[in-house]
Amino acid sequence: QVQLVESGGGSVQTGGSLRLGCVTDSFTFSTSSMAWFRQAPGREREGVAVIYENDRSTRYIDDVRGRFTISRDSAKSTVYLQMNNLRPVDTAMYYCAAGARAERPGGRLFGGRYFGYWGQGTQVTVSS
Known about the structure:
globular; about 50% strand
């Protein structure tokens, strides 16, 4: 069973920075695209950033491009999301996700990949 364990998150003021981390098993890490999603109260869960398993390229939604950076540390089987210049609209529960080859409950498409494994979520709150 694939497990994703997130860390980081918290409360910052506008313009602040946070780094989220997500560790998984080495097989999942090396064979799957990894992504970060977020879900604000009353809104659908949306993909934020993805890093692809094949060439390690990245993709971001327009709202975070230039402020957020997704990266992977192979030695630690960990994917990170560095978030700079945070804004109140970034306030949400952030979820780490790993690609899945078969349909799973709660699965989402993002960046041309299907994500079916999820972490427990970590809260990010940005105050003005």
